[in-house]
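task queued by scheduler; priority normal; single chain, no ligands, no partner chains; default sampling; output format set to structure tokens
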Amino acid sequence: MDASAANASTHFVCDSVMDLLLIETVALMSNSGTSTSGTLSTTGLTGDEDREAAYFKLEMLGYRVGMGLTEKATRDRPRFADNLEIVKFICKDFWLAVFNKQIDNLKTNHRGIYVLTDNNFRWFSRMSANSATETAQLAFPHAAFPCGLIRGALSALGVASVVIAEVSNTPQCTFQIKFRT
């Protein structure tokens, strides 16, 4: 096996391990202490509160990972001039490092809100359910980690932000970034 084939198979293994790790992490966070009804669970929280707590934990995990990846990736780069350059870094370099592709679409209203669209979000590509609505509901907890990745990356670059994911048609995922002033 030549070196390029070895690198490709190693990369494929890394991608598979990351996919499985995210699936199990979401399942663990989503099922820890949750109840299937709106009644109190063993943790004393309702099902909705449990889902929010799980989403927050997943988002915070992604935040820390995003910060670390960005600190490493930008260590030898000069500072970015403005927020648009930072978002372009997220769309091109950061997304390429994490997902092996660039963001498919970037839109802005030029007032601090950016919308990033990934038309074939890798972590949603193999999800399916009986209906599109059900698939979107199942995919939503898996969007917490990448929201955290983006927010952590932006934080490492000195920008406070709010990142919201929208999952309407899997495997498409849209991330809305709003900068805090």
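post-processing summary
- The longest strand covers residues 173-179.
- The mean pLDDT is 82.
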